[in-house]
């Protein structure tokens, strides 16, 4: 691990001022905010991340989960994943989020990991983790070893010729289906955006993963009020039953009324370079009956643009079945 | 001089043996992680789990003799003396390795320094004000510790290397195996991913704070009763997780326990007995409540 200076921010302004001195908030950032550290310390040990300064933000007042006047929920940036997963309102109104969080990592890691940290979770692509290998995300312009290498676990949606790394987060997938809003405070004030606009596709700049600029601090995430009569579910398929990343996962939020699907929100995990919301699948579902044929049509639509690599062709079918099964389960109980 | 050079060569041999063993262990660890990831067969695990170990006990004797002889304090029976702990600190595998490290350095540099014994006895908690260190105050098992550490020091390394609380173990060092599990404010965490300097003011509990011989925690008693370990390396982490699990939302079934214990890997495969031990304590607690 490279040496660094550790400082502690006692108010958001301090953190923002400290972070603003970096030249980037993306890969290669000289200054990093640290909270749970589950991802960052891991990467620092591998010398994938080599910040010169760490700013401890765990003492900032972003540790609350609060009901909003409109019926939605506000989740602080440093709320621990386990606190969020077991929060009674989350379990009741946003089951998909609770299930996604509890399907990720281990209890120890969930006790450490935070909301904002999970939003910024880096890929598990082995070439990103291995500094001896080329990786455009870690070292822009060095090439992508995964395209011609081991890519079984990597993305089939949103890839580019420069990067096929999958976004590993489960929480992000649930938040995409819940249409979460990310709130950011930076040197120019506050701004917010839908989670769909927060993560970037790799394109020719895979080292840029989010819209964050130097000094930008995620303060909280808000969820809209649950759609009336909706049910939600997270289904995760993986090599092991527990403590393993998704090969394919589906977050679904569906409202069924009078035998018809009146509203559907669908997002896929494990298959996309970012949390993969699928408006195509949602369009196929809306107004249709909740039948296996409709679910399969929606699943086919979600994976229509899939580009499998040499080892992950199975993910196309797996993701389709995952989504169709998730839809079956969530409407069964409706 | 002849004696010194022969001691140095013995010490070099000791270093070589120890080093090759540690390297072997490291490489086996890597291989194990790889085969775990790819769901290899049990045979693979078995082969990895029964390595041929160099005779480490013989090395201990050589090393102690080297240390003792050089200080000019040779007891009549250096071996017995080293192990009795009457004049020198009791030799554990850990103190042996740290002393061995010094012997190795000095042996390769030339004649063994005469202050060897004193150096090995320096309490690292009282480490000097080195460059790039920060003062840190930690509360561990109800006791306050003031140390100066490199900011890179993980909580695990701080516990083991600075506070000499070596119950928490280093397995993967990447938050994957759970051997380093400790409680921070009552919640279990992977101490290998915690930067120690960030945990000032927190209440840290390690296995040393959970139970003592003669007054074990019910989970520790259950681990003994159910034979919930083989080599024991993961056990402290398993126990720390199991103790925390008792107060976490967990369903009644074995499958629920397995799910919440999935952050603790046991290379020996004592999982069934670990689950049985935990379930026995939960069962007793339920009966106690019902009564």
3D architecture notes:
The complex is a heterodimer of chains A (334) and B (291). Chain A contains 13 helices and 12 strands. Chain A is of the alpha+beta class and 334 residues long. Chain B has 291 residues and is of the alpha+beta class. Chain B has 3 domains: 119 residues, no CATH class; 85 residues, Ubiquitin-like (UB roll) (Roll); 73 residues, DNA polymerase, domain 1 (Orthogonal Bundle), CATH 1.10.150. Helices cover 49% and strands 9% of the residues of chain B. In chain B, helix 8 crosses helix 11. At the A-B interface, strand 1, helix 2 and helix 6 of A face strand 4, helix 9 and helix 10 of B.
Overall pLDDT confidence of chain A = 98
Q: Order of SSEs of chain B, N→C?
A: HHHHHHEEHEEEHHHH
Adjacency order of strands in the biggest sheet of chain B: 2-1-5-3-4
Question: Helix- and strand-based class of chain B?
Answer: alpha+beta
The number of helical runs of chain A is 13
Query: How much beta of chain B, percentage-wise?
Result: 5-15%
Helix content of chain A: 25-40%
How can the largest sheet of chain B be summarized? 5 strands, mixed
Identify the overall geometry of chain B: elongated
**Main beta sheet strand tally, sense and closure of chain A:** 5 strands, antiparallel
Low-confidence stretches of chain A: none
Name the beta content range of chain A.
15-25%
Report Rg of chain B: 22 Å
User: What is the ordering of alpha helices and beta strands of chain A?
Assistant: EHEHEEEHHHHHHHEEHEEEEEHHH
Do you know the CATH topology of the domain at 230-332 in chain A? Enolase-like, domain 1
Low-confidence stretches of chain B: 1-90, 95-122
List keywords for this structure.
heterodimer, A: 334 residues, alpha+beta, Enolase-like, domain 1, five-stranded antiparallel beta sheet, four-stranded antiparallel beta sheet, 20% strand, B: 291 residues, Ubiquitin-like (UB roll), DNA polymerase, domain 1, five-stranded mixed beta sheet, 11 helices, 5 strands, 49% helix, disordered N terminus
